[in-house]
Design a protein that fits this description.
Strand order of the largest sheet: 1-2
Number of domains: 2
Largest sheet: 2 strands, antiparallel
Distance between the termini: 57 Å
Mean pLDDT: 89
Number of helices: 11
Length: 275
């Protein structure tokens, strides 16, 4: 007689549920991805340069980031109570979040068309005023992760194990709790560098010789990916300690965000040995 050490793998989540559980967020995700086509076309045709790069680079980056965020929310919506998802308050709240994200994209593309800065723009009074409004919209769209996280935290219908439910909920809640103070400080500053920066990391553009507040901001917005993934691994590899490991991973990730934020405030670059 032989014993198999393999355990049956859980079926891959049904992605078709995105359209039934979160139709507005799923549609938004598709729109953001398709909108990359004209943005890349504009980058190819527009020879102008702003601060060393194509003015269309920033809206392209934001489209990717916002598509990932909206798509992630659409996926996690399946773990909310059915009654909450179907309720009018949630539908109206989701509609406001979708509007805020679209407004952010229009603002970024508008600044690219003018070949000027979308953030920290003190040269064009209109864009200076719009920046404040976009800050409020940023809080609104980020609050979606908080609302969804609390809803999943309270949902005990058995669709997820306690460790996975806690991991998903904590990741979503931390996304809001960590992003808001970091982004708030960043938006109130004169720029994202702390000190004079002359060298930047490839792709991410993070400073190699000065503090960069965008590092902590980037990490904070991805708590909704890191913590649930850690919870999934803990549930698979260490089921008996999974719940404790979820809390530990959440604490470690929060410490990482706080640490990189403090590092930037001191004017020190992230991973200085790279580049």
């Amino acid at each position: 007689m032989t014993l198999s050490l393999a355990t049956p793998a859980a079926p891959f989540p049904d992605l078709r549920r995105l359209w039934t559980d979160a139709p507005a967020l799923t549609t938004l995700t598709v729109v953001l991805i398709l909108a990359l086509i004209p943005l890349y076309g504009a980058m190819a045709l527009d020879a102008r340069v702003f601060q060393g790069d194509s003015p269309w680079l920033k809206p392209i980056k934001f489209h990717y980031a916002l598509a990932i965020y909206a798509g992630s929310l659409a996926f996690f919506a399946r773990y909310m109570p059915t009654g909450t998802r179907a309720g009018r308050p949630w539908r109206w709240f989701t509609a406001s979040v979708v509007f805020a994200i679209l407004a952010e994209c229009v603002w970024l593309s508008g600044a690219a068309m003018l070949n000027t800065a979308s953030h920290f723009n003190t040269d064009i009074p209109f864009l200076t005023a719009v920046y404040q409004v976009m800050g409020a919209f940023a809080v609104l769209l980020t609050s979606a992760s908080l609302v969804m996280g609390i809803s999943i935290w309270r949902n005990r219908d058995g669709a997820l194990s306690p460790a996975l439910r806690q991991g998903v909920a904590l990741g979503l809640i931390l996304t809001f709790a960590l992003t808001i103070p970091v982004a708030g400080y960043l938006s109130a500053s004169d720029g994202h560098f702390v000190g004079d920066s002359t060298r930047q990391m490839w792709l991410m553009g993070w400073s190699r010789d000065a503090g960069d507040l965008r590092v902590a901001h980037f990490l904070a917005t991805h708590a909704l990916h890191f913590v649930p993934l850690a919870a999934l691994l803990a549930a698979r590899l260490f089921p008996a300690q999974a719940l404790r490991l979820v809390w530990l991973s959440a604490a470690v990730f929060a410490a990482l965000v706080i640490g990189t934020f403090a590092q930037a405030l001191q004017g020190r670059p992230f991973l200085p040995f790279i580049g």
